């Protein structure tokens, strides 16, 4: 466990939320290229310094942190799985993260399968066998972990190119 | 060579049977790749066509992408239908064109139909409850009515002052009893009980006290006839008692005990004690003398008992005179 002094422990205040004051002319939104520019340059540096595996792990962990923050800010009112599903679908669309559709919500075995279309992280990327959405994996894990208090395993089981790239994720309990 | 390659590809696309890889092109790696791709595509499409939506799509490229999109759409739809089945009517499909429109319209209509059904059920429940309340009220009213009816019946059949049968009801019951006695062949006795000097009690103590005396006598008669018997009030201070099924000896014993009890049980008032006695005329009818239920017979038995009572008065009161209904012979008992 890291015991170094912290400067940037995440909370929403770090981001700065008063748009009126911060970006009176430009407002809330930016181009997805800028988002990816940040993500892929960061990935580049992390990979070259620590290797691909470590870079993936760092991204996954960051995604989990983001998923937990997302849950607290947007999903706190969800009372059951159907209302959680609805909230995820709505907020992902509103925030431009992606178009979420569910294929399975088995509350008995706690298994969930969903697809994300037009994914912010990977839509438009070349079609390869690699599952590259590790940040998304962490993000989805963060949401389900927060809602259930359990430790989910989320895996991108399929990723394909059909104009707008679609990714399929499976969330299970170990 | 080129022809056989093209022919092979054509067969892969069109032929129902899977064609053999052309031996002459065995070294063509690209053809191997296309062959494998098309074989996988055929297998995948076959799985989808026969309903296996979970079949993994292990190929890449634009066709595979479209196939995966179709597979995902069908799986999403399945999930959405499951949600609707679980009661979530907010589900809407925003992909798959015409199918989406049909699905959304179906869910909306289902929601409307169920809502209206639920409303109707609520209305029905309310109506049922209102009906239940109304029935309960009616039943309550009916119970009150029945109670009143029973009270009226009792009033119509009984003497208001003493509570014993009135003349008419006594007549009806006595006639029925005569009939039974005739059928079964047992004797019957009818006694008329008259309070001695009742007029004097009325005159000296007043009518209200006279009424109390009548009630007191009634109580005494009832308690001494604990074996049964029909009691009625016949006139002002006259009571009638019908004792069916007893022989003359037993009847006389019972009736005379009654006479004695009246004499021994004076009526205590706030101003003093009223002593009283009764004279009793008893008519005894044996079964072989012929019993019947008609009015003439009843009147004739009353007449016999009346004659006996007259004789009891003549004999000095506070005594019992018995007459056999047919023989009409005097038989004086008691007198203290
Ligand atoms: Zn992906």
UniProtKB/TrEMBL annotation, chain A:
Protein name: 4-vinyl reductase
Membrane spanning residue stretches: none
Gene3D superfamilies in alphabetical order: Trafficking protein particle complex subunit 3 (3.30.1380.20)
InterPro entries in the record: NO_sig/Golgi_transp_ligand-bd, V4R
Domain 4-vinyl reductase 4VR intervals: 111-173
Natural source organism: Desulfobulbus oligotrophicus
Signal sequence residues: none
Superkingdom field: Bacteria
Automatic annotation (TrEMBL), chain B:
GGDEF domain ranges (all copies): 186-325
A GO CC annotation given for this chain: plasma membrane
Gene Ontology molecular function: diguanylate cyclase activity
UniProt cross-references to Pfam families, sorted A to Z: GGDEF (PF00990)
UniProt keyword Coiled coil present: yes
Alphabetized UniProt keyword annotations: Coiled coil
EC number: 2.7.7.65
Coiled coil: 107-148
PROSITE patterns for this protein: GGDEF, HAMP
Domain called HAMP: residue spans: 68-115
Cross-referenced InterPro entries: Diguanylate_Cyclase (IPR050469), GGDEF_dom (IPR000160), HAMP_dom (IPR003660), Nucleotide_cyclase (IPR029787), Rev_trsase/Diguanyl_cyclase (IPR043128)
One of the GO biological process terms: cell adhesion involved in single-species biofilm formation
Protein name: diguanylate cyclase
